[in-house]
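Quick start: what a row looks like.
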Amino acid sequence: MQKLIQGIHHFHEHDFRPLKGLFQQLTKGQNPETLFITCSDSRIDPNLLTRSKPGELFILRNAGNIVPSHGAANGGEAATIEFAVAGLGVHDIIIC
């Protein structure tokens, strides 16, 4: 836990400041162009892999990056995809 707390402090002191304007802009809403569907595996970091900044990807993570067929499950995958497309207007969907 201490490592995570130190990471938060490091982020605030070193990483947040250069991106402060971006974070202020993001408080007004999000406008990602891409829905990125990937596994919840802790070894995968979609923003690191794609070199994207906060707000550029709308991310759906689940075990096995599975998107069940319509009506097959009660998970949130369909709602997330619908929100991304209809609510946020994403242009691209990537299944990684």
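That is the whole record. The beta strands are 34-39, 57-62, 92-95. The chain has a mean pLDDT of 92.
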